[in-house]
């Protein structure tokens, strides 16, 4: 009986193949975590007024005009909008989703709406890009001002 053992060649994947696979798995996990959900994600009961015909929370009161500082703004994260008051009595609204990679904007200061992810900055008056990697302005959102209340249109 022979005690010789046969060696079987083992193929080791190239380093860049391993890194690419790990990166792809990480990307898949991130996309799953940031994937689009239903409109009522994060809501308490998901109930929406019947027949409003508008978008997310259309017609709902966001806040009072006195809550929006002149030259600044306020982020309404649950509704996905940021409302600004560039000049006294003039109210504007924009999507709170950065046009670079979809991160939620986190602050309004110094005349800009600011994204924490990669430093994009948007003008409070028109949503235009003031800095950072964002490729386009924040889309406008429809609001109405009635008395001292700001509502989604």
List the topology elements.
Blueprint: H1 15-33, E1 61-64, E2 73-76, E3 81-84, E4 92-95, E5 107-109, E6 112-114, E7 121-123, E8 129-131, E9 143-146, E10 149-152
Antiparallel strand pairs: 1-10, 2-3, 3-4, 5-6, 6-7, 7-8, 9-10
Describe this structure as you would to a colleague.
The protein is 12% helix and 24% strand. By secondary structure, it is an alpha+beta fold. The strands form 3 sheets. It has a 4-stranded antiparallel beta sheet, with no helix packed on it. The longest helix has 19 residues. About 20% of the residues have low confidence. The protein is elongated. It has 1 helix and 10 strands; from the N terminus they run αββββββββββ.
How can the largest sheet be summarized? 4 strands, antiparallel
Global outline: elongated
Gap from first CA to last CA = 88 Å
Radius of gyration, rounded?
Answer: 24 Å
Strands across the major sheet, in which order? 5-6-7-8
Compose a concise summary of this entry.
The protein has one helix at residues 15-33; strands spanning 61-64, 73-76, 81-84, 92-95, 107-109, 112-114, 121-123, 129-131, 143-146, 149-152. The protein has 153 residues and is α+β, with helices and mostly antiparallel strands.
